[in-house]
Amino acid sequence: MTQIPITRAGYEKLKKELEHIKMVLVPQNIKEIEVARAHGDISENAEFAAAKERQSFIQGKIQEIENNLAHAHVIDLSRITNERVVFGATVTFEEDGSGETFTYQLVGPLESNVGENKISVTSPLGKALIGKREGDVVTVKTPRGTRTVEITEIRIEQNRP
């Protein structure tokens, strides 16, 4: 598998999530299994089956996060300038026609989250914005149709969580 770009903040967030799972969720699940076992016959014990299913889910999540961390390539945002849109940049643009303004940080696929105004550099919009400058007009085909936007600001936020 190739390396996956990620910000330092995104990497640290993944590490914290892994630690939380290992230090909190795994011990909770072990207790749930013990309590369910104490109820007697496990062959017909719904609590035991649910706890074992949760254990499987937790182990899968641990493997997924460990794999993502192993393939993560942390990008040093301190070396990036705001001359062009690049990985880690926060871009403000105005949508042609509606005049609506949007601001997104371009991040890797592991940390993209539209609710947090973070879009992946591999998304159609992310790909279209890469390399552009303030004032550039960009047309991009998205699943919701063609969008035309004008970049109004590019900034680099070093410690954005």
Please provide a written account of the structure:
- This protein has 161 residues and is an alpha/beta fold.
- It has two domains: 72 residues, Helix Hairpins (Orthogonal Bundle), CATH 1.10.287.180; 77 residues, Transcription elongation factor, GreA/GreB, C-terminal domain (Chitinase A, domain 3), CATH 3.10.50.
- Helix content is 39%, strand content 27%.
- It contains three helices and seven strands.
- The chain has a five-stranded mixed β-sheet. The chain has a two-stranded parallel sheet with strand order 1-2.
- Helix 1 packs antiparallel against helix 2.
- The longest helix has 31 residues.
- The chain is elongated, with a radius of gyration of 21 Å.
- The two termini are 26 Å apart.
Write a concise keyword list for the protein shown above.
single chain; 161 residues; alpha/beta; Helix Hairpins; Chitinase A, domain 3; 2 domains; five-stranded mixed β-sheet; two-stranded parallel sheet; 7 strands; elongated
**Spans with pLDDT under 50 lasting ≥5 residues?**
none
Mean pLDDT: 91
How many domains?
Answer: 2
Shape-level CATH architecture of the largest domain:
Roll
Oligomer: single chain
Estimate what percentage of residues fall within beta strands. 25-35%
Neighbour order of strands in the largest sheet: 5-4-3-7-6
- Main sheet, how many strands, which sense, barrel? 5 strands, mixed
How large is the count of helical segments? 3
Task: Give the CATH H-level superfamily of the largest domain.
Answer: Transcription elongation factor, GreA/GreB, C-terminal domain
Principal-axis shape equals elongated
User: What name is given to the CATH topology of the largest domain?
Assistant: Chitinase A, domain 3
Rg value? 21 Å
Calculate the terminal CA-CA distance, rounded to whole Å.
Answer: 26 Å
Top-tier CATH class of the largest domain: Alpha Beta
